[in-house]
Amino acid sequence: MIDFVRLRYLDKNRIEPFISNKNNFDKLHTVLEYHSGEISYPFTANISSMEIRISDKEVFVKNSLHKLYNELQKAKSQNYNDFTYSALSNTIQHLDSKLIDLRKTRLTQLEFGLNIELPVSAESIIRENVILHKLKFHNHNEQFGGRGEYKQFNHSNYYFKIYDKAKQYQLDKHVIRFEIKYKSSKGFNSLGVFNIHDLKSKKLLQNLFGDLLKRFDELTIVDNITTDSKITAKDKSKLETYLSYNYWDKLSERHNRNRKITEKKAFLSLLVKNDLLKTKTFLRANLTRKFDELLNS
User: Fold this and answer.
1) Rounded to whole angstroms, what are the CA distances from 227 to 95, 202, 230, 231?
2) Is it true that the peptide bond before 17 is cis, omega within 30 degrees of 0?
């Protein structure tokens, strides 16, 4: 569920002496000017892979809670396994035991996502079936040197990411990840999340999942058309038009906006008529099942 977090301390004057104390952190990295011996910001310390960074004006703590949990379990630093509600709560409590005033911090960035297993490769689904988000083309499409397919859609307050988690970590099963990364607190404050301890609330986690599901529903995910398909040539031609980003881009112009609403309905009707939403229906059902499983574990 929760992966990357970035939180900011509101009272730098209280937390900096705590982190600088050797009894609390045995390693504190600083910038040293060689000739004068003058020490400068930033100061950095770590709780496993979680980085604490002190500048002259503020203090941030950031990185993956999921990876931190696995590190605490003496496992590999990874985020492809299940990260249950109880594991999340225990990880937040661990941070609380290592720091002070954690309840007085404010979350500034947050990632929420789910890994689900597939009967076929995630790479093929991402490449062939995941086409548009909010009828816009992806901003990034990476293969990571053959280590998996990755599509990212950029929006003003968030990134929506879909990628091949199994190939990223060379797993012997098929795993796809859907993830929303909030670029600022504006995206999740409206869902009731302000502080890292809020992430222990099942109600607020349900709010975050609801937002992820909303973004998932905005994806255009279309089944492959097989060679023995009974779809008419006319419908195939319409589909080619509707699956073009340029078509929707032109309809976004002010004088075409009423037509765009009509065409969106026609596109959905065409997909339903030709039974081309099986992949999307399957993925949505498994996202819901996985969230419920993690929340109750």
Assistant:
1) 55, 46, 9, 10
2) no
Residue 17: Cβ-neighbour burial (10 angstroms; 0-12, 13-18, 19+): exposed
136-181, pLDDT tens digit by residue? 999 987 765 666 789 999 999 999 999 998 888 888 999 999 999 9
Q: What share of the chain is helix, strand, coil (3-state, %, to 5)?
A: 40, 25, 30
| Segment 60-105, tens digit of pLDDT | 999 999 999 999 998 789 998 999 999 999 999 999 999 999 999 9
Amino acid at 107: L
SS3 117: strand
* Lookup: tokens for 263: 């065409």
Compute the distance between CA of residue 94 and CA of residue 98 in angstroms, rounded to an integer: 6
Residues listed for the chain? 297
Strand partners, 44: 29, 53
Whole-number Å distance between alpha carbons of 138 and 49:
30
Burial grade of 138 (CB within 10 A; 0-12, 13-18, 19 or more): buried
Element (H, E) at 30: strand 29-32
- The set of residues, in sequence order, having a beta carbon less than 8 Å from that of 165 and lying 6+ positions away, is 80, 115, 122, 148, 171, 175, 176, 177
Phi, psi of 84 (to 5 degrees): -75, 170
